[in-house]
Amino acid sequence: MRKLFTTLSNIWKIEDLRVRIINTLLFLLIYRIGTYVVLPGVIYSSLSNSQGKEGLVGLLNMFAGGAFSHASIFALGVMPYISASIVVQLLGIAVPYFTKLQKEGESGRNKLNQWTRYLTIGITALQAVGYVKSQLQPNQISPEINAFTFNLMSVVILTAGTLFVMWLGEKITDKGIGNGISLIIMVGIIAQLPGAFLTEFSVRTGGKGGLITFIVELIALIGVVMLTILIVQGTRKVGVQYAKRIVGNKQYGGVRQYIPLKVNAAGVMPIIFAQALMFIPAYIPQLFPSVSTNPIVMSMANYTSWAHNLLFAILIIVFTYFYTAITINPNQMADDMKKNGGFIPGVKPGRTTSEFIDGIISRITLPGSIFLAFIAIIPAFASAIGVQPIFSRYFGGTSLIILVGVVLDTLQQIESHLLMRHYDGLMKTGRITGRTATPTSAGTTPPVI
């Protein structure tokens, strides 16, 4: 306990770190207040407490911190920005113009950011139209306002709200701690946790399983969190030796470094891609009522069925390999290593090095993808054995991986400030190990989200 208070005191002593933490908390407070500001013309008392709690809508509501069900000005959250970022990232592989921008350094990144912002506006406007049409019923809108005026005004406000949240995320990144967009998503997920916790507690203590069952669920949740940390932290270190160089009166190189290859280099993206495809069977009965009684369609539309989860797990494994392949380029890593006079001991530079790195990535990606698929399907099995749907989402899937990844990244940022000023780290052993280490010039670190 004394160690904890000493660490907190050291954090407060560092002025730059203290200011960054305060800025982060203030920006997040602004975001949380905005999630309760209702769209003009919406009758708040008419919104149902169960609105936006199930299926895809429930997942979006979780990422938006409840703003989706509140008909808030921040109802769409940062998900349009995430979608735009994914599209731009994929364009960087398929379109030569965007590939060229990725290699132009700071100026290229600025142009890609501009393209991302423009695309965010378009995606947000389309999603805003869909939100107004599908989520808001006529009896939830004030009769004193014209329908066309309300629709146009709501689309503009929802688009502006998402852009403001995106601006808050960028400010947190510049003036605060860690990745601002990731922190905003994390805060939205955590905001739903107390309500989910109380709901599950009241159901269990109300006669459905009892207190012992609730304690067992908490122990299982802790175990899943520990397993997720192992996956997020896991790295395979490839040793790299650099030749000695004499520049003037100084010697460079001659030291052994390493390339940290992550077991789960794709992060949460495979789950997001697979989840988007798995929502298609749920909409088939709505589009084609005649096949709604088909056993295969019914099984695939039920997210607790074995067929649904088996296909979901296979898609995650496939997308993990796909996303790892497009984010990590062994050829570029080998070329950068060769240009800087580095080599892997016992491996020839050039193509042989590239094949060696690619082989390691292929081997470590398999267990990483299997564990990722296992964590992704845990919420479905938790719901199948009686855990409330709103609480079962915290047993795995996208929300848990985002929570673990963002918390570890934030702790890493704080620890780096402490160690840089010769204070002890957050952990008793001195530092948080296994997270994103300082890569060599041949290493690349993919984004968290």
TrEMBL record:
SUPFAM superfamilies linked: Preprotein translocase SecY subunit
UniProt keyword terms in alphabetical order: Cell membrane, Membrane, Protein transport, Translocation, Transmembrane, Transmembrane helix, Transport
InterPro entries: SecY, SecY/SEC61-alpha, SecY_CS, SecY_dom_sf
Gene Ontology biological process terms in this record: intracellular protein transmembrane transport; protein targeting; protein transport by the Sec complex
GO CC annotation, single: plasma membrane
Membrane topology: Multi-pass membrane protein
Cellular compartment(s): Cell membrane; Membrane
Transmembrane annotation, as ranges: 21-47, 67-94, 115-133, 145-168, 180-199, 211-232, 265-286, 306-328, 364-385
Domain of life: Bacteria
Pfam families cross-referenced by the UniProt entry: SecY
Family from the record: Belongs to the SecY/SEC61-alpha family.
Its job: The central subunit of the protein translocation channel SecYEG. Consists of two halves formed by TMs 1-5 and 6-10. These two domains form a lateral gate at the front which open onto the bilayer between TMs 2 and 7, and are clamped together by SecE at the back. The channel is closed by both a pore ring composed of hydrophobic SecY resides and a short helix (helix 2A) on the extracellular side of the membrane which forms a plug. The plug probably moves laterally to allow the channel to open. The ring and the pore may move independently.
Subunit structure: Component of the Sec protein translocase complex. Heterotrimer consisting of SecY, SecE and SecG subunits. The heterotrimers can form oligomers, although 1 heterotrimer is thought to be able to translocate proteins. Interacts with the ribosome. Interacts with SecDF, and other proteins may be involved. Interacts with SecA.
Name by which UniProt lists this protein: Protein translocase subunit SecY
